[in-house]
From TrEMBL:
Residues 17-83 form the Acyl-CoA dehydrogenase/oxidase N-terminal domain. This is Flavin-dependent monooxygenase. CDD domains: NcnH. Residues 236-367 form the Acyl-CoA dehydrogenase C-terminal domain. It comes from Marinomonas piezotolerans. GO terms for molecular function: acyl-CoA dehydrogenase activity; flavin adenine dinucleotide binding; monooxygenase activity. It comes from the Bacteria. Keywords: Monooxygenase, Oxidoreductase. InterPro entries: Acyl-CoA_DH_C, Acyl-CoA_Oxase/DH_mid-dom_sf, AcylCo_DH-like_C, AcylCoA_DH/ox_N, AcylCoA_DH/ox_N_sf, AcylCoA_DH/oxidase_NM_dom_sf. The keyword Hydrolase does not apply. Pfam families: Acyl-CoA_dh_2, Acyl-CoA_dh_N.
Amino acid sequence: MKRHNPLLEDLKSVLPEIAANAEHAETLRQVPKENIELLKKVGLHKAFLPKAYGGFEISLPEFCDCIAALAGACCSTAWAFSLLCTHNHQMALFSKQLQDDVWKENPDAMASSSIAPFGRYEEADGGIVFNGDMKWSSGCDHADWAIVGFLRNNAEGAKDYCFAVIPKSDYTIDDDWHSMAMKGSGTKTLVIKDAFVPEHRIQKAKDMMEGKSAGYGLYPDSKIFYAPYRPYFASGFAAMALGVAERMVEVFKEVTSNRVRAYTGAKVNAATPALMRLAESKHQISAARAFMEKTWDEHREFAEAHRYPTREELAYWRTNQAYAVKMSIEVVDRLFNAIGATQWMLDKEAQRLFRDCHMCGAHAYTDYDVCAQILGRELMGLDPDPTLL
């Protein structure tokens, strides 16, 4: 869908430089500083920053179009930067005091995360003392804060899934990211020891899904902050897979147009199998994009109407994304399997697209085996399975 998106137009001006840095990102095992500077130059980091701190508060469909385009240039950069951006939406649902802590003196500040509830804590006067080796923190080298997850005992004797926001001065980074894919995302471990977290930097995940958090209603004219945090947090995964698959279509065309078979000299560009693979892949990725654009538009419409989704609607939003990632992987596999052995070389773009697209489907949120169960139970009227994320 063609939509007015000035931020996307600005982003396109720096994509060639980011694409040229893709191999460098993999060598560094983190997003190059130059890429971060280019993206901040066009203002992508302000996508979900509250206007009160100079942000843009663009719609989710506009943001996802940007992330898809960025992923086509360098998916590692898109992975890390998408999360750094969406965390702004999450922090805008925290208290005003926390937001001032993060953005008042530095509106360009961003946060990485490790939100699985593996943190350990002790109650303290006015907050908690946090400890933990918090893994999978993408883009942490370029973050000023971290959002970390833990389970906190409540008055009823149960546990609340909570988030704590911690400044980079209170943790160190363990450089342990040695991965087969998303090599340049810098998804490292945060080592946190005895960090005091005041109460105003803590929020329950459930409250942030139901419009009950400390920041709810803080921006009455906003079109994006009357929305649960999780769909925004996870929005980039399908966008990245789409962008990679769309780029693979173009790479396949480029490679195949000049390819000849080594032993026979036959031209591949007019061979029926290549044409059929290309045609089906184009149809499939177009269908996946249309499917996600409809879902992203629903997110936008709900937020603008200050309407929170039902459990059924959330189940569809979650699982629609995973299915779009699944279709994107099928596109990439279909084309990569017929693109020729030369494209397996590490200096070739196609093999990087192949690896990164599969990583998009490996995230806990986009695991289609999990998502199919979630939607299947919802369709059958069964209660949600608490063992499924």
